[in-house]
Design goal:
By secondary structure, the protein is an alpha+beta fold. The chain has helices spanning about 15-45, 55-85, 90-105, 125-145, 155-170, 175-200, 205-235, 240-255, 255-265, 270-305, 310-345, 410-425, 455-465, 470-490, 540-545, 550-565, 575-585, 600-605, 620-625, and strands at about 370, 375-385, 385-395, 395-400, 435-440, 445-450, 455, 490, 500-505, 505-510, 515-520. Helix content is about 55%, strand content about 10%. The strands form three sheets. It has a six-stranded antiparallel sheet, with helices on one face. The radius of gyration is 32 Å and the shape is elongated.
Length: about 625
Amino acid sequence: MTLDVYNRAQFPPLIMLRAAFVVVAAASLSLYWVYFQAALNHWGAQGGILGLQGIPLAVQIPILLTVEGVAALTFWGASVYLLARRPNSKMVLLTAMVGFMMPVRVAFVQVIPLEALPSWYPPSVQAAFLTLFATLSYLVCALFPDGTLRPAWVKWWVLARLPVVVNYAFNIVPLTTGQFVFLDMTMFGALMVGQYQRFQQSRFSLERQQTKWILLGIGFGLAFFFIRRLADAYLLASFPELYLVLYTAARIATLSIPIAVTFALLRYRLYDVDWILNRSAVYGLMSALVVGVLAVGLLIAQALLSQWVSAGNARLMMAVLAALVIAWSYQSMKEQLQRWIDRRLFRLRVSTGTFKTRDEKPKNSWTGAVLDDLVIGEWVARGSMGQVYAATYRGQRVAVKLLPKNDSQDEASTRLLLREMRLFHSLSHPNICQMLGGGLYQDTPYIIMEYIEGRELEQVLTARGVLTLEETRLIVRDVAAALDYLHEREIIHHDVKPRNIILQDLRAVLTDFGTARHISGTQGTGALLLATPDYSAPEVLREGDQATPASDLYSLGVVAYRMLTGQKPFEGTLRQKLVAIVHTPARDPRELNASIPEWTAKAILRALEKDPARRFATAGEFARAL
């Protein structure tokens, strides 16, 4: 896959498309002004839009002009912005042409009759405009996003569309408005099916996300467009007030089209589409269902109550009761609903409370304490299951790990630190912090480790933002060697992140085994005890305590991604990140740092695969692929 997927499109030369865009944009702006003036004159003479004469002109005109003005500026603005950001993209040029024509097509062409246009305006111009717009808009939808007609049957759909376009422009076979709407819905419905099949067949996560934006934006906008067309046929004359509301809602909804197209073509925040499509839709549906059940219950209660009190008093009492019920139960019901949706529909087996944040520096310090031969010095760092201090042990400078004083009597925390001690004592590798000893002092466990003079990778990234490719490769090589050593001994680190990687001279050292465990073992606490979920593998979030060596590899992939781009693959609220990690492909790191070689980007994206079986077999293999 090349960096710019649009190079695959077999379009006319770029200079020809640019010239065509200039002509189309100038013609569209001119036609918009002609139709705009003609519409104002026509509406003024007729007392408003045909069928809306019952609504005062002083109400109609400001609403119509505001809605149409905002829509036009949004389409034109999106087109100009796309061209400014991607001036050499042929797909963007085609899309921008449609963007400039869209306001004329959806605002005025079908609203005012031809006889309302200036006498010098030839009707053939409108026919030519309609033909060109229909051809370009359907072609862009069929080719999006990479300029190829896929799946294979779409080319036959394009051929079948040609006679419809010609008839649409010249009215060779007269059709009623309702028939036109049905035909358009059928044709666009087929195209949306084609886009969905393209999504299913695509091998590239980028193209899949782009297609999702198109399905979301165009599908939503067109749904309201067709509602408006049906309203033209069946509501305009009989229910003008309702028509005006639907008209305004439909025009506002069409703004989703330029927004979605812009996001897709710029590949901007593409991972957000999963959040919008999945959670918001399901939350909205489930919330509506709960509200509906509550409303039905209150209506039944009102009907029963009206047997003893007047209907007015019954409605008032039910309104007060409904407000009290909603105020009392809304937050609890919302949290329960979100938990149920997360577990049952999104396969998210961990909750936001799983990730426990500890204080950076302990409030009750161990500094100055003497534990047998161990003299505790200054606080150094926070671990997943304790605090790390510099210390002196029999004249040697060491590091010691203890539970915070307020946790020192906590049975679960003590058990985990003792388990870390058992795992840690047998490890010996140049890229793993070495354990020197440990013990219990008045029922308080402690671990003595080598003191590593260096800086956490987290501190380096905070200060510098991005590391060089060579630095990244060296760090990944060392951490990968440590992970392969652990995995050969059937130990999973379970918490690979920049805070647990110390950079010392020419080596990187992996530290903090507070959440490590044997592959055949269990976590034992029901909590991951990580500061953030950013480095957690999808299978861990899906299944809870189901970490494997491939999970450590995923975490190392996130670390590499951040070192080269300065960002983690997914940002947002904690709940958003959890869902994105489980369901959404990571963005190509070259979008954030164009200097990253293609093979390096592919290696990182493979390490970040959702399916553990599709990642590298070992961490060392990933390091070599970088």
